[in-house]
Amino acid sequence: MATTTGLGILSPENAEKRTEILELLEQAYWMEIETVMSYVANSINPDGVRAQEIRESLEEDIQEELGHAQQFATRIKELYGVVPGSKDFAAEQDALQPPEHQTDVVHVIKGVIEAETGAIEHYNRIIEAANEADWVTQDMTIGILHDEERHRRLFEGYLRELEADRVA
Ligand SMILES: [Fe+2]
Ligand SMILES: [Fe+2]
């Protein structure tokens, strides 16, 4: 059981907890990096009138997701970890690969919702793991979780609108 007395998460007796948190932070870092790649592509690829709003929205998110990657990387270092090199990267975002037709905006929106959902699930995991062990990681991740919840809600709205149009 980790303790928050003395040096807290930086205490030698919390080494095991630190390793656990570092692994979670590393995964979070890669998720953000991959999201940056996916959002760059999807802020440029989509074609058509309905694509405009989505492209602009994703373009804004790129900076925010990059900021998240930098926050996770900084925290890795603070916990005596090393930010991994690019050769350790393994892509996972199947749903955010380019659609067959670039006018298929629904494909992009669903991919974004899936990525944001994955981030929300993983960050909730970090917040749980850091509880009563690492307040700073917990506080930082809560802030990032808030951003992802906002992103997910925004794209749910886009999807709702497009699906309503289809029915009409
Ligand atoms: Fe993010
Ligand atoms: Fe996000």
What does this structure look like?
Helices cover 68% and strands 0% of the residues. It has four helices and no strands. It is elongated, with a radius of gyration of 18 Å. The mean pLDDT is 95. Bound molecules: fe (ii) ion (FE2) (2 copies). One fe (ii) ion binds next to helix 1 and helix 2.
Layout: helices, strands, pairs:
Blueprint lengths: L14 H28 L8 H28 L26 H26 L4 H33 L1
Helix pairs in contact: 1-2, 1-3, 2-4, 3-4
Bound molecules: fe (ii) ion (2 copies).
One fe (ii) ion (FE2) binds next to helix 1 and helix 2.
Gap between N and C termini, in Å?
A: 57 Å
Low-confidence runs of at least 5 consecutive residues: none
Shape descriptor reads: elongated
Q: What's the rounded overall pLDDT mean?
A: 95
Radius of gyration, CA atoms, in whole angstroms: 18 Å
Which bin fits the share of residues in helices? 55-70%
Major β-sheet annotation: none
Strand content: under 5%
**How many DSSP-defined strands?**
0
The number of helical runs is 4
Bound molecules: fe (ii) ion
- Helix/strand order: HHHH
How would you classify the helix and strand content by structural class? mainly alpha
Index terms:
168 residues, mainly alpha, 4 helices, 68% helix, binds fe (ii) ion
Summarize this, please?
The chain is mainly alpha-helical and about 170 residues long. The chain is about 70% helix and about 0% strand.
